[in-house]
Amino acid sequence: MQEYIYYSQTKLEFPLHESIYVTSKLEELTGKNFLISNSNEVSSELLADEIEFYEKNTEDSLQNKISNIKKLYEIAEQKLDCATDFPKSKEIGNRLLIISSSSEDTKAIMKSLDKDEFDTFHIEESILKSISGSIGSLKVIVEDENSESELNVDQIVWFDMKDEGSKQSGVFDPNQTSISDVINTLRENCQNYEYRNYISYDSTICQYHERRDEVCAKCVEVCPTVAITKIDDKKHLEFSDIDCLGCGGCVSVCPSGAIDYNPINKDAIFELSLNYKDTHPLIISENMNLKETNVSLKEGILPLKIEGGKFLDELSLLTFSQVSSSQVIFYNDELSKGTLEAIRILNEIYQKKYSKDAVLVATNESELQEAINKVTFVENSFFSFNQQTMRKREAFSYRVSHIVGDEDLGVVETGPNIHYGLIKVNEDKCTLCLSCVGACNVDALIADAKTFELRVNPSLCTACGYCVASCAEEDCLSIKQDVINLNPMFFKENVLAKDKLFACIECGKEFATTKAIEKVATVMKPFFASNPTKLKTLYCCEDCKAKLMIKEGLLDA
Ligand code: SF4
Ligand code: SF4
């Protein structure tokens, strides 16, 4: 199979690399399969229309143009190879519910359906109580004359659908498209309903998973569908691939990196960024219409088309910026809250260091041209390292610490979607019980067993506050919310509290921290005051404590 095809009605006036099949005749392609095509008129596994956009608009020299076109095919293939999503399918039955308040609407849709094509039910919107489940297994609760009943259907047509319907897969509103469009969709779904698993999830670093208090559920808040739901009694997140639209909004707001975007995950972003060294990356979200976009792409601009334009976070954008040592142009008119905040934070960091923005956003053609005219390399900003084994926070921290170096560049405010924080400890009150270390699942708080120190790496802290909620002492642990201090100490481990080991007064074995023993002794002394042996046990290890008490018991007997 020839993998790459370049099809254009008008003949190319220059040659392309031999790995690319070039043609202006569609009839030549009958029966041929391709991996990557520049045009949607040719069937292929991946449409890379950014190639045609680049070819038509670039001002690169002919030699660079020829080699960059080949490179763009290779980048598209790399995207396919790195993708970790996989297709799934589900059988969809023919039970159809029509929800409308007008008999005209119901008649209109029934008229357009073939007889016996669907097993059709109809209800008025006024009796609808709730819809749950997914396409192929939707559960509808209706209330009629004070009694509730349940309908189980495969798909729903809901005229003037309310928000609740738009969150569920398998629910369609003819007033948003048309009756014929909706009927075509219903039929197609019954033939073959395919979906993908866009999201991967690591519960071990999730800030919601199995915590007593709810300190995060940001992904649930931003998800436009019911693809992520909270099971509050177990504190588990439930993911429904079939309901996920693949927008990626949850990825950009996840503070810990527990969610990743399977079509282009964190590792793929790093791999792809390596192609953009010494170029100006132009990241284009798939919702932008490239066919009708005419701009002059000045020399050195290389596009990257991405799916799900809402997943880019601070790490992805900084990776592109540092590896290319250029400002990055992001062409997207549907920016997510998380991406917008990531861009603001990165731009503030870059302004402080390089007096330039890291990311230039364009939401339409004229803004794109403006960004293209403006984009420059950022002197001394190149930085690349293999971040593939690192978590999101760790890799971002490493990248920002490189920018900061030995300087103090001041403070950048974060939040409300990307949180950083500074943990403080009142050393007089801290007993070094280390409950806070156990509560922190992103390794921002660390206990050093050799030095008996409680340490914090501020750059890893998501400021979730679970350590504060877990601390047994009052007014001991606190967090200053939403700051990144751009100085070297913010990216290193700092000592929060320190102690030394206490040696058993009987056998000399070190068995607990001095502060913990002092605390227990302060509380228990009044109760044991009349018994010198019991008082002594407060300063003994478990073995000697038992021995002393047995001896005391035997003497008493
Ligand atoms: S946003 Fe991330 S850390 Fe927060 S609940 Fe969702 S998966 Fe967990
Ligand atoms: S990708 Fe979008 S639709 Fe899918 S789970 Fe995340 S926020 Fe929800």
From TrEMBL:
Question: Does Kinase appear among the keywords?
Answer: no
Q: Which residues form the signal peptide?
A: none
Gene Ontology molecular function, alphabetical: 4 iron, 4 sulfur cluster binding; metal ion binding
Stretches assigned to the 4Fe-4S ferredoxin-type domain: 235-264, 421-450, 452-482
Q: Which key words are in the record? A: 4Fe-4S, Iron, Iron-sulfur, Metal-binding
Per the record's keyword annotation, is Nucleotidyltransferase included, yes or no? Answer: no
UniProt-listed InterPro entries: 4Fe4S_Fe-S-bd, 4Fe4S_Fe_S_CS, Fe-S_Ferredoxin
What superkingdom does the record give? Bacteria
Pfam families recorded: Fer4_10 (PF13237), Fer4_7 (PF12838)
Protein name according to UniProt: 4Fe-4S ferredoxin
Q: Which organism is it from?
A: Halarcobacter ebronensis
